[in-house]
Automatic annotation (TrEMBL):
Protein name, as recorded: G-protein coupled receptors family 1 profile domain-containing protein
Subcellular location(s) of the protein: Membrane
Domain G-protein coupled receptors family 1 profile: residue ranges: 1-209
Membrane topology: Multi-pass membrane protein
Secretion signal span: none
PANTHER family (UniProt xref): G-PROTEIN COUPLED RECEPTOR
Heme recorded as keyword: no
Chain segments annotated as transmembrane: 56-80, 112-135, 155-177, 197-216
Keyword list, A-Z: G-protein coupled receptor, Membrane, Receptor, Transducer, Transmembrane, Transmembrane helix
Lineage: Eukaryota, Metazoa, Spiralia, Gnathifera, Rotifera
Length: 239
C-alpha cells in the first residue's frame, strides 16, 4: 500500500523474518511428523499404549517440530551478527536479505535443505506410501479392497501431499537457484509471485481437512437449508 516497509527499521525486519521463518518451518515439520505418525497409528497402534514409547514416538517429535525452528531462527536471524544496512525498505520483506542467507553459504544451504526441502519431501513421501501400504496389506491378506472405505483416507493424504508439492516445490527450486547463481530477475519472480504460494497452505489446508470429515457436507447442507427456511409466522397475524 505504501510501496515501502513501515516502520522502516532493522528491528522490525528481523522480527518479521524470524516470525515468518519460524512459523513456516514449524508448519512443515509438524505436517511431516504427523504424516510419519500416521503409519504408526495405522499399522502399530499398540506401541502408543505404553507411556514411555508414547513420549518417545508421539510427544517428542511433536515437541521437536515446534522447538527446533524456534531455536534455529533465534540464532540464525535474531542473534546472528549483522549490519542493519543490509535491509532494503523499498522491497517486499525488506529485500529478504537475512544476513545468514547472504553471508554464510553453509548455513543458508543447510536451511534450504533441512528446514525447507526435507520436511516437504517427507510429507509427500509419507502420505503417498501410506496409501500404498494399506493397499499392499489388504492384498497380502487376500482381503477385498473396499474403495468406498479407503476413498476418504486416500483423498485426504493425496490432497495434502499435492498441496505441499504445488506450493513449496517452486519456492525450494528458485531458492536453491538463488544460492547457486543469484539474479535480480529470478529474485523478483520469487519474492513477488512464487513465495506467496506458501500462504495457500494456511488458507486451504484447514478447509481441505474439514471437507473430508465424515458427514460434514450433510451438516452444511442442513445448516444452509435451515437458514433459508422462512420463519414461523403462526400466531403473529394481527399482532
Amino acid at each position: 500500500r505504501l510501496n515501502r516497509i513501515s516502520p522502516a527499521t532493522g528491528t522490525y525486519c528481523k522480527f518479521w523474518m524470524f516470525l515468518e521463518s519460524t512459523l513456516d518451518a514449524s508448519n512443515a515439520f509438524l505436517a511431516a511428523v504427523i504424516s510419519i505418525q500416521r503409519h504408526t497409528l495405522v499399522f502399530q497402534p499398540n506401541i502408543l499404549r505404553i507411556r514411555f514409547k508414547r513420549y518417545i514416538f508421539y510427544y517428542s517429535p511433536l515437541g521437536f517440530a515446534f522447538c527446533y525452528p524456534l531455536i534455529f531462527y533465534l540464532g540464525a536471524v535474531i542473534f546472528y551478527d549483522c549490519d542493519d544496512s543490509q535491509w532494503n525498505f523499498e522491497l517486499n520483506m525488506c529485500g529478504d536479505t537475512t544476513c545468514y542467507l547472504s553471508n554464510n553459504q553453509i548455513l543458508a544451504t543447510y536451511d534450504w535443505i533441512v528446514n525447507t526441502a526435507l520436511p516437504i519431501v517427507v510429507i509427500i513421501f509419507a502420505n503417498a506410501t501410506l496409501v500404498i501400504r494399506v493397499i499392499e496389506q489388504k492384498h497380502r491378506r487376500q482381503q477385498t479392497i473396499s474403495w468406498s472405505k479407503q476413498r476418504r483416507m486416500t483423498l485426504q493424504l493425496l490432497s495434502i501431499s499435492s498441496l505441499y508439492l504445488v506450493t513449496w516445490i517452486p519456492s525450494i527450486v528458485t531458492g536453491l537457484m538463488q544460492q547457486v547463481n543469484a539474479t535480480t530477475s529470478l529474485y523478483d519472480i520469487q519474492e513477488n509471485y512464487i513465495s506467496d504460494l506458501t500462504y495457500l497452505i494456511c488458507l486451504l489446508l484447514p478447509w481441505m481437512c474439514i471437507g473430508l470429515v465424515p458427514d460434514f457436507k450433510k451438516w452444511m447442507l442442513k445448516y444452509f437449508r435451515r437458514l433459508k427456511r422462512p420463519p414461523n409466522t403462526i400466531g403473529t397475524v394481527g399482532q
